[in-house]
Task: inverse folding
């Protein structure tokens, strides 16, 4: 149950303070009649109060003096001054000192009800706001960015120094290196942290939808636009907009984005109202944008707009011992999530960590550890628990081989399986025998016994 | 803080002239909402002792004090009806007043009349407002505070519009806060 709202009713006339207190108590408030200014200030010092209702004319310490001292002790506390002897001078004085309101006795009960309710509602929203902010800070106090390598420490230093500014940041790095995590870290350490962080992956959207996603659209602006729709720029107002895969933007979207960044305003599709946006843009790509500029697929002016500060995330294979650190971090995370107990990794697994090239980077490592926690038995993660299975060698740069290389490997695999029966192999490969002979010759393939 | 013990009786008394049928309507409204044994007493005089001559209004709290001394038996609750204009010193008026968790209450018909607001008299409307104010004040006597539900009879009325919008029923929250012994019917009267 919420604590009761506490209201102090200060008036030297007993009947006034008591009748008003009784009236307020019927709203469920804890209204306390207080006899004079000094008593009010003493109580204010000792106890928590939500609202003060204070009579203007009192002997010794009058209402204005109570108001002034109350605001010194509890800045921002709402004080309503009431009086039967209203003059313009006292009203101006009360408001100047900082009264919440100035009411003339007798007060219309509806007006007093509304004023008190308004203060109570505002305070409860403020309390909720403080609670939510504390929650946000508590959630994010655990730093998710793990790593001792020099390159990661440099990235973290960069995040710290760039967060305070509103400069655009371009994060580059291979897929799975944690670009969004870094963008979020910049947001969380910035003044914008209580405002939205909106992420949009441009590469994942069909070209026709990118503009509507980014800038929004008005009802009827295109077939199927049955409602007006806020764009991501509008949604991120006051906060941070994270644009992922900017290297995949069409020339048209690049022009539009450049205009928004320059004007700090945008128009919804089909709309003619200028929408001002206060947004910090962080973008990311796994492409080499400089190469794209040379090839004419990325605008140079946009590149410089997005890349006021550049942060490059190293691939996992170049992060040395960070692999083990990250693996331990993920192991702890998934054990906690799935309520499992694992002490660590077998020596073979640790040796594999440094040998393997991790083409999918941290994302691949994270998935591998998650799988190991799910399928693994015993207190140590074994090589057989890893996605590569058994004691096999991890696939060497599986994702990075050429089509030619893949074809060669596949043909060899089929030939080995048929014990080098060319007719059966050609049938399986759905090519004719002459083509297969040509490929064997071209790739320089030979039978296993000849290979030895 | 509802009173622990049910009263022996809830006595309804007019202070001075009151509209015809008002006492009877108050009795039937209270009895259809609560398990309370009601009795109509013979009228008492207008509460001149409570008149504040400077504003020509009657102090509702002084009336409650007077009721409690005039009818001192602790097991006797007093519900009074008057046609004088009620107020407390700080506020311009009150429709009624009750001791929160206490044994005395007063309601005024003065501002419940259509004529007060420059409209033709309407006895049906007047008596329907009297019923709502009566159930509301008895709710306070039983320890209930105001409710934010506009339809609940415990919604605070500072204007007739608010009185006319609310019903004679308690919302489920207020109903559950009433002492179990006083509950009548599944959801109060309609």
Result:
């Amino acid at each position: 149950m919420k604590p009761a709202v506490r209201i102090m009713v200060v008036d030297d006339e007993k009947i006034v303070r008591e009748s008003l207190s009784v009236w307020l108590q019927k709203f469920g408030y804890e209204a306390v009649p207080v006899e004079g200014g000094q008593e009010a200030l003493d109580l204010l010092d000792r106890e928590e109060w939500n609202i003060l209702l204070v009579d203007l004319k009192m002997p010794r310490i009058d209402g204005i003096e109570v108001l002034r001292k109350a605001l010194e002790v509890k800045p921002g506390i709402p004080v309503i001054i009431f009086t039967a002897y209203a003059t313009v001078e006292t009203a101006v004085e009360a408001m100047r000192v900082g009264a919440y309101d100035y009411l003339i006795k007798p007060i219309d009960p509806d007006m007093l009800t509304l004023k008190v309710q308004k203060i109570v509602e505002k305070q409860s929203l403020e309390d909720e706001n403080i609670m939510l902010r504390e929650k946000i800070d508590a959630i994010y106090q655990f730093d998710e960015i793990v790593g001792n390598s020099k390159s990661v420490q440099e990235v973290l230093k960069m995040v710290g120094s760039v967060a305070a500014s509103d400069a655009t940041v371009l994060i580059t790095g291979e897929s799975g290196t944690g670009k969004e995590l870094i963008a979020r870290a910049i947001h969380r350490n910035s003044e914008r942290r209580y405002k939205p962080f909106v992420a949009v992956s441009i590469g994942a959207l069909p070209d026709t939808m990118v503009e509507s996603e980014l800038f929004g659209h008005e009802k009827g602006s295109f077939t199927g636009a049955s409602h007006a729709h806020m764009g991501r720029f509008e949604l991120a107002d006051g906060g941070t907009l994270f644009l992922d895969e900017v290297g995949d933007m069409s020339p048209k979207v690049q022009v539009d984005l450049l205009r928004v960044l320059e004007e700090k305003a945008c128009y919804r599709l089909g709309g003619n109202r200028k929408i001002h946006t206060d947004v910090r843009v962080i973008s990311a790509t796994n492409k080499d944008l400089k190469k794209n500029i040379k090839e004419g697929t990325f605008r140079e002016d946009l590149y410089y707009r997005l890349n006021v500060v550049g942060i490059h995330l190293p691939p996992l294979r170049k992060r040395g011992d960070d692999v083990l650190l990250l693996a331990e971090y993920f192991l702890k995370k998934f054990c906690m999530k799935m309520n499992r107990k694992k002490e660590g990794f077998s020596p073979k697994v640790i040796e594999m960590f440094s040998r393997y090239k991790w083409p999918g980077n941290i994302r691949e490592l994270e998935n591998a550890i998650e799988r190991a926690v799910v399928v693994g038995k015993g207190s140590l993660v074994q090589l057989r628990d890893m996605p590569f299975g058994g004691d096999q060698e991890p696939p060497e740069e599986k994702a990075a081989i050429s089509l030619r290389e893949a074809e060669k490997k596949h043909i060899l695999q089929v030939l080995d399986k048929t014990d080098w029966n060319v007719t059966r192999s050609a049938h399986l490969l759905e090519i004719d025998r002459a083509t297969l002979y040509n490929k064997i010759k071209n790739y320089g393939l030979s039978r296993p016994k000849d290979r030895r | 803080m509802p009173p622990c013990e049910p009263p022996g009786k809830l006595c309804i008394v007019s202070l001075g002239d009151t509209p015809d049928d008002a006492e009877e309507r108050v009795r039937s409204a209270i009895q259809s909402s609560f398990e309370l044994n009601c009795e109509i007493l013979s009228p008492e005089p207008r509460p001149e002792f409570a008149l504040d001559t400077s504003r020509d209004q009657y102090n509702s709290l002084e009336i409650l004090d007077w009721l409690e001394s005039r009818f001192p038996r602790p097991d006797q609750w007093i519900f009074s009806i008057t046609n004088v204009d009620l107020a407390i010193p700080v506020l311009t008026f009150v429709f009624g007043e009750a001791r929160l968790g206490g044994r005395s209450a007063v309601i005024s018909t003065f501002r419940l009349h259509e004529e007060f607001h420059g409209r033709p008299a309407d006895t049906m409307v007047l008596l329907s407002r009297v019923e709502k104010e009566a159930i509301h004040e008895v709710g306070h006597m039983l320890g209930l505070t105001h409710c934010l539900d506009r339809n609940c009879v415990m919604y605070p009325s500072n204007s007739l519009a608010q009185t006319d919008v609310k019903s004679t029923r308690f919302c489920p929250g207020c109903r559950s806060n009433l002492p179990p012994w006083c509950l009548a019917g599944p959801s109060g009267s309609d």
Remarks:
- The interface with chain A takes residues 55, 59, 61, 87-94, 100, 140, 145-146, 156, 158-159 of chain B (CB under 8 Å).
- Helices of chain B lie at 22-33, 60-70, 123-141, 160-165, 172-177.
- Chain B has one domain: 9-144.
